[in-house]
Write a structure and sequence with these properties.
The chain is mostly beta strands and 271 residues long. Helices cover 8% and strands 35% of the residues. Strand 17 and strand 18 form a beta hairpin.
C-alpha cells in the first residue's frame, strides 16, 4: 500500500502582535488560508475523552484567566493533547498524553489507550468523529517524569481512519528554523509559525516555539522541507498569577526552552 508523503516548499506565515517568546505568532490554521497547511492539518489530531465537551476558555490549572488574555472565552476542549499520523492508522504523541487511571504503569497505559479517543479536523470549534486507540505499539519513558532529557513518546494504532496523508519524518540534521502545529489549551488547530532551534543537546532540540498545555505531542516541522523534525516534549511555565488573575508567561526569544525530541533518534522503525 502506498502512502501520500507531504513535501512542500517554504511558505510565508502571517505575523500577529503580543508576546510569549518575543511576539505571539500562534494563528489558527484556517486563518492562514494556506492549502499546504490545510493538507498537513488532516494528519493532526486532538486527544479527547468520552466526556469531552466544548467549553469557553475562562480558566486554566493556575486559576481564572484575565479578560485581556488572548483566546479568552474562545471555545476549547479541556485537558487536551496533540498527536499526528506517521503511518497507516499509526499515531504518535507524548507518552504522558496516554496516561490513564489505575495502579501501576501498565494499567495506566492500557486504560489511557482504552479511554482516550482522537479527533481529526478540529480546525474550528465543532466536535467531529473520533477514533479509538486499538493498541500501544511502541513507547519510551515513564509517567510523572519532568526532566527535559527523559524520553516521552508513544506510537499507537488507531481503529481504521479515513484516507489521510502520512507525515514524513526527517532523517537530516536539525534545521535552524521550525514551526509547529497543535492544539494549545485545547483550541482548534493552531500554528506556531516562527520557531528557532537555539540549542541541540543529545536527542533534544530547544526552541522558542510558542506552546501551552495541550501542545504536548505536537509535530515540529522543518520550515523548508515540511518534514517532521520532532515531537514537543515539555517546556517552560505557561502562566503566572498576577494577584488577581492568570496571564501568559512572557520570555525573550533567546530564553526558549521548549524541548523537542528529534524523531530521527527513535529506537524503532515505523512501518
Amino acid at each position: 500500500m502506498r502512502f501520500l508523503i507531504l513535501l512542500f516548499p517554504l511558505i510565508c506565515f502571517a505575523e500577529q502582535p503580543e508576546a510569549i517568546y518575543g511576539t505571539n505568532d500562534l494563528v489558527q490554521v484556517t486563518d492562514l488560508k494556506s492549502p499546504k497547511l490545510i493538507e498537513l492539518s488532516k494528519s493532526i489530531a486532538i486527544r479527547v475523552s468520552k466526556s469531552s465537551r466544548l467549553k469557553k476558555l475562562k480558566k486554566v490549572s493556575e486559576g481564572k484567566l484575565c479578560r485581556s488574555v488572548s483566546y479568552y472565552k474562545k471555545k476549547r476542549i479541556e485537558k487536551a493533547c496533540t498527536g499526528f499520523l506517521v503511518g497507516k492508522n499509526k499515531l504518535m504523541t507524548s507518552l504522558h498524553c496516554l496516561e490513564g487511571e489505575g495502579e501501576g504503569f501498565e494499567s495506566r497505559l492500557e486504560n489511557g489507550c482504552k479511554n482516550f479517543r482522537w479527533m481529526f479536523d478540529y480546525s474550528s470549534p465543532k466536535m467531529k468523529k473520533t477514533y479509538a486507540c486499538k493498541k500501544v505499539l511502541e513507547y519510551a519513558g515513564e509517567f510523572g517524569v519532568t526532566n527535559y532529557f527523559e524520553n516521552d513518546y508513544v506510537l499507537i494504532e488507531l481503529e481504521e481512519t479515513d484516507s489521510r496523508p502520512i507525515l514524513k519524518i526527517s532523517k537530516k540534521e536539525s534545521p535552524n528554523e521550525v514551526f509547529m502545529m497543535g492544539h494549545p489549551m485545547g483550541l482548534p488547530l493552531m500554528v506556531s509559525q516562527t520557531g528557532e532551534v537555539l540549542e541541540s543537546l543529545g536527542s533534544f532540540l530547544f526552541t522558542n516555539l510558542d506552546a501551552f498545555e495541550g501542545s504536548s505531542g505536537s509535530p515540529v516541522f522543518n520550515k523548508e522541507t515540511f518534514e517532521v523534525v520532532g515531537i514537543l516534549n515539555s517546556g517552560r511555565t505557561d502562566y503566572f498569577h498576577n494577584g488577581k488573575c492568570v496571564e501568559f508567561e512572557t520570555y525573550e526569544n533567546s530564553e526558549g526552552r521548549e524541548a523537542v525530541f528529534e524523531l530521527r533518534n527513535l529506537t524503532f522503525e515505523i512501518e
